[in-house]
Amino acid sequence: MTIRPARRSEAQPLQPYPLKLSTAALLGAGLISAATVCAQEAAPAPKAVDNVVTVTGSRIAARGFNQPTPTTTLTADDIEKSAEPNIFNTIAQLPALQGSTGSQVLTYSTSSGQQGLSAFSLRGLGAFRTLTLLDGQRVVPANVTGVTDISQFPQLLVKRVDVVTGGASASYGSDAVGGVVNFITDKKFTGFKANIEGGETTYHDDKNVTLQAAWGRGFLDDKLHVVVSVERSKEDGIPPNGFGAGPGPNGRTAFKAPAFQTRPFAQTTDGKPQIYDIRNAQNYQYNLYGLITSGPLQGTAFGDGGVPYKFNYGSNGVPDGKGGVSGCISPFCVGGDLSGVSANTTTLASELKRENAYTRIGYAINDDHEIYMTINAAEVNSQNQPNGGAPKNANLTIQCDNPFLPASIAAACAANNITSFQYGTGNANLPKYISVEPTRRMARYVIGADGRFDAGGTTWSYNGYYQRGINRTDLYVNNITLTPRYNAAIDAIRLPDGSIVCRSVVARNSGCQPLNIIGNVPQSTGALAYVMPPNGPQQHARQTQDVASFNVSGEPLALWAGPLAVATGLEYRREAYTVRADPYGNGVTADSPNSPAYPADPLLNTSSGANWFAGNYHNGSGAYSVREAYLEVNLPLFKSAGLGEANLNVAGRGTSYSTAGNAKTWKIGGTWKTSIDGVRLRAVTSRDVRAPNLSELFAPVVITNNVVNHKGTTLTVQQQVTGNPALKPEVARSTELGIVLAQPRWAPGFSASFDYYTIKVNGVISTLGLQQEVDLCDAGHQDLCAAMVLDSPVPTNNYVRLQQFNLASLKLKGYDIETSYRGSMAGLGLPGMFTLRALATHTIDNITDSGVPGTIPTQGAGVNMGTTPRWKLLASQGWSSDSGSLTLSERWISNGVYSNEYIECQTNCPVSTPIHQTIDNNHMKGVLYVDLGATYKVSENVMAYAKIDNLANRNAPTSGNGINPSLYDLFGRMYRAGVRFTF
């Protein structure tokens, strides 16, 4: 992928320069060896309203002004050369974007509701600390965490994407702690264009097809301009492979049943590691079709037809009759019968279907004023399998009089004088496995006006809009068991007439039919329908966003070094959500009574719900409003031949939240174009905020019973997990210092930049555990004591509300570097242009302090099981001419560790502690991916293209936690080809 620098506006195109052989060799070596990152200057914006380039780093578009906040731009050409079916995948490759979600992420999840959600995260701070905009406007979130779904954006009309890698709350409001990603559409597109693309991996999966078309035309002497686009894309994803530790889906070889074996702390006085990083891990608490896990019959497994056999534990393990296995570390052995390994039953990449329709109608009242309306309708469907079979980890009890048991086992029970035994099973013989199917439907309407007017001798630009956005998410979970019914169905007895029924009379009267889980045997249709009813968990959410915004900018004064530029504006925003869940998950309440689809059942918990194996959703609702005003000023400081020219940029914003109170944000920055040829300095520091989102404020109450230690006494308490309306905004302080070399005369076509950044976030919203919250209250934290009652004279009235609090802090530090070159091949006697570009982010610190006594801050930088590797690099080398182009790209992630708090050792290990655990291997490999793309101009109106990602088919490295989809490519070699039409 080639990425054009963001230093020039569209009115000032990058000029070609001859490329000499010596220069090419020097730059080629330098770009590959140097770590370089996206940290470009914002483009200067001409004053004329017709072609002002509004750069996301600031609200000001003024002649001669360069933004102090680093901003990277990807153009439509960059996006096209990436040839991804979803523009999200292209942007997420940028080094500063770390921890973004997508089709690879959360595929193991049943309950999160975020499967298939494409959302950006800058600096590894999380998607909810990155503000994503469309034409500088907010977009209705697709989840109660407040994040937008890029799959719902109109992608063919995007002409550029600005990525601001610094705090921008003073200019754009809450959530811009990590930065801003702004999609700019072509509002005046004229003509017709279309794109047809298809692809698949080398394993013949994730087959994908993308169809896009856009049309634009002017009417009434171009006063009325209409733009329409439609898109449809389908990615099949990577299906699960099934039970067992063998090859991954469709022949992938990376998966080898990884796990961490962890010994108790008390056993670590022997000089050996506490944690072992193993492969071919065998969980000894269950197997494929059933395993007795405790008692004198421990180690008896059941296979085809329910025939018992001696289980092979691996590690030369021998069961101890008490649930343990010698030679193994709970719950894993190494090797043995690996047929029941279930981690390979998870979808590696979700299926994703995306449909989008977008229309913009603009009417120019005159040369100075335009009114417009946009309508964006989108639907995104996703599907994933979180796991196969719903494994039961030694948590079942089978009675010895169960008629499904083989006679030999019944006799062994009698011989050993037992009436029951503990049991685990992978439930691999269930005919269908869990399927999670979210559908997100967005309808977004915007009416607005922009233009210019004269006042006080100054021409002022203005824009104002009102947006109404609605996102509906319907989440269905299929093929999942109801735990109380499952437990009743597996507890079978034989009646005197020889029939087999459920033991519980109450269960029998409510329709229970016995389920045989002893070995691989055919399942009763009636039993399956009873434990896996056709209507599974459901969640129906409706999220709305109303925004009214008005902004004015201009240059009211001519000063000694240039014009004073000013931008100011007002904004009102209201966010709201409601969610309704099925009564089996939520519990039967006044607003969710039992329905014909979910008939009443005496076995089920009707007060708190939570009856499903997973996916127990709950009803909830909430809303908040925001009122904001801001002022931004650009003051030219000096301009002379000896000193160069400098600007000071200052912004302030006052915000009032209906729930969180008032917040103030500000930004102070400046740029200095020195008298040294091509050298510019920039610096910015800012105070930014991230307000609590709807989920954190108004999460529905989930109630369970639990025990807690309070002042030396063990209490049974009602545990209430809920939102916290008293949360305050997180407050961040960001600072960036940079130096830019912008095409000096002695190196025409060459540019480079270096930017150092620090970010500290206080009052981070985080969740405490039950005992942690009680301990902090006992230690004197009165704000936490308000969330519990522990000394009630009526013990059943004791409760603890598990809420999120503003306790934690984050501290990030690192730097971004970028170098680029663009020149003509004429010096080598060849046609066309040659482009080199490399971008990288080096993360020095990513420190999290939980704020909990007895813990220490943890270092996340270089933890490759997380989201922030030490180095993330994107480089490209491209050649282009009138007939086509060829691009070679590299994506590199540096080597890392599992945890910076681990102590690696094999012998003579210190005693392991909760803060510093010992491990035998603390290394996680990085990876280099190489991509190759080409385009060919078939005719004036037709461009063919092809792309191969991960050319060498590099596997993702694994840890004891498996593969990290937030960091690595799970697809393998990917082939794509397509045709673009323009008329």
Topology (elements, then pairings):
Layout: H1 21-33, E1 71-75, H2 76-82, H3 87-92, E2 130-134, E3 137-138, E4 158-164, H4 169-172, E5 179-185, E6 191-201, E7 208-219, E8 224-235, E9 259-262, E10 275-278, E11 281-283, E12 291-292, E13 300-302, E14 308-310, E15 318-319, E16 325-326, E17 332-334, E18 351-366, E19 369-383, E20 392-399, H5 407-415, E21 420-425, E22 435-455, E23 458-478, H6 483-490, E24 492-494, E25 500-502, H7 505-509, H8 525-531, E26 538-559, E27 562-581, H9 583-586, E28 620-640, E29 644-657, E30 661-673, E31 679-690, H10 694-698, E32 702-710, E33 713-721, E34 730-742, E35 750-767, H11 770-778, H12 782-785, E36 788-789, E37 799-802, E38 804-824, E39 833-849, E40 858-859, E41 871-881, E42 884-893, E43 903-904, E44 918-919, E45 927-939, E46 942-949, E47 958-959, E48 962-963, E49 974-982
Parallel strand pairs: 2-5, 33-37, 43-44
Antiparallel strand pairs: 1-4, 2-3, 4-5, 6-7, 6-49, 7-8, 8-18, 9-10, 11-17, 12-21, 13-14, 15-16, 18-19, 19-22, 20-21, 22-23, 23-26, 24-25, 26-27, 27-28, 28-29, 29-30, 30-31, 31-34, 32-33, 34-35, 35-38, 36-37, 38-39, 39-40, 39-41, 41-42, 42-45, 45-46, 46-49, 47-48
Structural account:
This protein is mostly beta strands and 983 residues long. The protein has a domain at 583-616. Helices cover 8% and strands 44% of the residues. The chain is built from twelve helices and 49 strands. The strands form eleven sheets. It has a 22-stranded antiparallel β-barrel. It starts with 20 loop residues before the first helix and ends with a strand. Residues 1-39 form the signal peptide. It is found in: Cell outer membrane. Pfam families: Plug, TonB_dep_Rec_b-barrel. Keywords: Cell outer membrane, Membrane, Receptor, Signal, TonB box, Transmembrane, Transmembrane beta strand, Transport.
